[in-house]
Each structure stands twice: as structure tokens, then as C-alpha cells.
């Protein structure tokens, strides 16, 4: 709030000065959006991709639908997951979510 007030007070009585302060204010807003919204989202996407690429046989996972299971086979874009005894389903890697550390067991 103080930064906005400072930027608004920089503009003098002339029309040219107000234009510069408006541009500065929009530049600050864009920078804030980048650091608080875009950058963290990109970081989270990179972590998810690294997690999905590092899936291994026997690892416990959770799908976006909330199903918990154990990886039986890893393919290029899919994973065969065992949800119960002899219940195996092929799931797209994009449907697997990160919860805690990659080796953490699902909460019960």
C-alpha cells in the first residue's frame, strides 16, 4: 500500500509525469504477479514433472481421483498401478499427484 502511495505521489501536476507514474505502477503490478503467481506455479510444475519421471516399481502413489495404489510397471507415458490384489489399471502419468515426499506412504 505504501509503495502504491509513493508511486502515485511521484506524479507531479504535469500530464507527462502522471503518465510515467502510471506506467511504473503497472510495471510493479506485473512484477508482483510474476513473483507471487507465475514463478511458484512453474516451480510446482517442474517438481511434478520430475516426480512423474522418477516413478519406480513398488512406489506408492495417489491418483487425481483419490485412488491409492502401488506402481507395478512404468511405461513411457503411462503407469500400471495395482489398487488391490490382482486389480491392475493402466493410468496416465499426468493423473498421478504429489503428496508429501515421493517415498511417503499415503495417509490412512
What does the model show?
This protein has 108 residues and is of the alpha+beta class. It has two domains: 2-51; 57-97. The chain is 44% helix and 24% strand. It has two helices and five strands, in the order H-H-E-E-E-E-E. It has helices spanning 2-10, 15-53; strands spanning 60-63, 68-74, 78-84, 87-92, 96-97. A five-stranded antiparallel sheet has the order 4-3-2-1-5, with no helix packed on it. Strand 3 (78-84) and strand 4 (87-92) form a beta hairpin. Helix 1 (2-10) runs antiparallel to helix 2 (15-53). The longest helix is centred in the first third of the chain and has 39 residues, at 15-53. The protein is rod-shaped and about 70 Å long.
Rg is 24 Å
Low-pLDDT residue intervals, each spanning 5 or more residues: none
Into which percentage range does the β-strand content fall? 15-25%
The figure for the number of domains is 2
Strand order of the largest sheet: 4-3-2-1-5
Oligomer: single chain
Which key terms come to mind for this protein?
single chain; 108 residues; five-stranded antiparallel β-sheet; 44% helix; 24% strand; rod-shaped
Protein topology:
Layout: H1 2-10, H2 15-53, E1 60-63, E2 68-74, E3 78-84, E4 87-92, E5 96-97
Antiparallel strand pairs: 1-2, 1-5, 2-3, 3-4
Short structural summary:
44% of the residues lie in helices and 24% in strands. By secondary structure, the protein is an alpha+beta fold.
